[in-house]
């Protein structure tokens, strides 16, 4: 772990995204109709993402423990079969996908980028778990940091979106 004791405590924030791409049309249909067997995928995945952010130091060996997270927001939504135009949303599976965005904030000496990315992955794994009975071919991908604020390096924003699935 890097030494951060000499760094000042400042507000910090990070936003990350990822996608769960469907390999067949069944998951999107079930989600639209609210007919998934394991319950409300959106709410359960959102809570899983929040829990994952809080447990990041248990999962990432050199991540700083004890970051005072001041907030975690996780958005989980279904994206259709067309190219989405919103920042950070991509769709290139012919059967739709779930788009997950996580924003984590803290007052601390180190950033929360890992917490934001861990939140998206926790939510994505939950989506996979809840839908695997109807789509074992789902792909979790395009995990990336979109933005970070605070600290010595200041404000950083991803300039160009990656397109991992093409």
TrEMBL record:
Keywords, comma-separated and alphabetical: Lyase, Molybdenum cofactor biosynthesis
Enzyme Commission identifier(s): 4.6.1.17
GO molecular function per UniProt: cyclic pyranopterin monophosphate synthase activity; GTP 3',8'-cyclase activity
Transmembrane segments: none
Domain of life of the native organism: Eukaryota
Reactions performed catalytically: (8S)-3',8-cyclo-7,8-dihydroguanosine 5'-triphosphate = cyclic pyranopterin phosphate + diphosphate
Keyword Protein transport: no
Pathway(s) where this gene product acts: Cofactor biosynthesis; molybdopterin biosynthesis
InterPro entries reported in the protein's UniProt record: MoaC, MoaC_bact/euk, MoaC_sf, MoCo_biosynth_MoaA/MoaC, Mopterin_CF_biosynth-C_dom
Matches recorded under NCBIfam families: moaC, PRK09364.1
Protein name: cyclic pyranopterin monophosphate synthase
Organism of origin: Aspergillus sclerotialis
